[in-house]
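input
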Amino acid sequence: MHKSQELAGKALLPLSALDGSPYAAVSGSRQSLNALGAVVSGASLASCDLAHALAANPLDSTGFAGPHQDEDRIRNARHARAVPEMERHLADAALQLEACESSCHDLVTSITRDLERASTTTQQAPHKISPTQYEALRALAKGGATMQTRGRGSTLVVIPDPTRITIATFQSLDKHGLVHLDTSVPLYQGRRITVTAEGQRALAQYRARTRVSAVPAAGPTATAAGMPTVAVKREARR
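output
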């Protein structure tokens, strides 16, 4: 039981650390963090099952009425009744711990894969977005956006500000990995939309590009502008 409690504590530490780290912005991190949360839950349930098994184990003690001639028979009967319950709790604890072990092995692979994919994506140039896509991404980045069905089953992107985002625009952003849609929730409840790390990079690139294009071109210098006039005056003197 002590080992299972240690496992729950050890799993809780990286879960808290990863949840507050840049990894939380990596595509696919939500599934890994949910799986790690399940490990914490599984280890806690295993501890609970072991505690129930320990509580079901009858102690070799004497009742209030003092020693009885058939004390051994009573003790044996109590043990016989407790064995099936103890076995059930121990089996449940073993299943929980096996699931935790399997999840931990899978998490090592998935977290490593997510980080490698994020590193590769970061090295690539961000996707170049159009003005319409920029306005949509900018509105979605403020938070609170959902995709949901309304009326006669029409699907809409609902955001707090007045910006209108068509399904076609959202699908284009989703295709390039700029947004993430939480598909674990039914559409009628409203699926949460978030901007991915790649989407944030695309926003930053668009702002930088538009700032550069907005700088006016430098005009002719005063000396260069005055040269034709000087030449005309010299020609007149001749």
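quick obs: The first strand starts at residue 146 and ends at 150.
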